[in-house]
Design brief:
Elements lengths: L3 H7 L35 H8 L6 E7 L4 E10 L4 E2 L6 E2 L5 H13 L15 H4 L10 H5 L14 H6 L8 H5 L19 H15 L4 H12 L5 E2 L13 E4 L2 E4 L1 H4 L9 E3 L1 H13 L6 H8 L9 E5 L2 E10 L2 E8 L4 E7 L6 H17 L2
Antiparallel strand pairs: 1-2, 1-12, 2-3, 4-8, 5-8, 6-7, 9-10, 10-11, 11-12
Helix pairs in contact: 3-8, 3-9, 3-12
Length: 376
Amino acid sequence: MNTINQLKVSLICTSMSILLTACGGSGGNDPQPVLPVEPTPIVVDYQKLIDETVTDTIPGIVLLVETPDNKFLGSAGVENIADQNPMQSYHTMPTASAGKPMIALLATILADDNLLNLDESISTWLSDDILTQIAHSEVMTLRQLLNHTSGIYNYVDNDDYIHVFLDEPEKLKTDIDFLSLGLNQQAYFKPGEGQKYSNTGYLLAGLILDNVIGEHHSAALRERILVPLGMNATYYRGIEKEQGDFISGYHIDEGETYETKPYLENVAQASAPVVSSVEDMALFLKRVVVDQSFINSDIRNDYFGSESLNGFIGKESLSGNTAYGHSGLTYGYHTQNIYLEEKELSITAFINCSTQPLCENTMDSLVKEVLANELD
């Protein structure tokens, strides 16, 4: 890669907001809503829309749009440029930060089982060796890691991140391998005194879950969430490689196209945990919002938050609807996952590219057009 700093900006640059964000330079990943409040009435043929969205730089798309009355599940383009294999609607790919809500839900479920306390200091579970390298760790809680109010430095802003990510692609890299990039850094603010998106918080949350469970938290994620919800296409990237395979992803740098899949196959991060399908991602989000039997009221209150307590998933008002969700952007892949409660509308989209700003802008436009059509 020739322009390392430019490429670094586009890797794992995601928003806590359900709305996609522009991510540039040292500005970090602060949510900047881009969707229209009052959509223009239109009628959209979704298959034609995604067919026309595919280009030489956007290889393939999978789109799910579902309400109680209608369902569109379609694909366009290719999942692999070299082989020209058609993209299929069942294909899976790394969902990046769109998987964070699953980690947060697992922590909340374990808290409900009294296996941990979301409001205890992280010193309860982490070693002094780690704690002494984190500003304000003595007053930082697990809840603050999960809802991005800890103030901890975001490790993807470290210039060395791209090297750790790309070097030795055949080696399994887990949370601890990336954590050093977020240590011994100045805090954005003291815990609880602000909100700023930080992937480092989820690395620490992953390590805490490992300590609580006594094994890698992927096992509990499968047992407590994936299996009960019937998310049969979803697995923990890097750790559960035997569970499946995923499509190729692409990034263009200085006119050269790079296939990124080999760099992600052995990376396992709680900040970007799962490989999934659009149907599984939509299923997860819908079930946690509407299914009272899956999570009880205590879990629900912690997970979604309140006026005085930040939740663990994006929640916004959109044209009279309560919209939940999370986007994800990693090296070669872009995900958007949204559920509008009152409309009972699921929108989940995959694009297997990460070139900026093209891929992010394309996802923006795609989701805007779907919303405009569905909210007419």
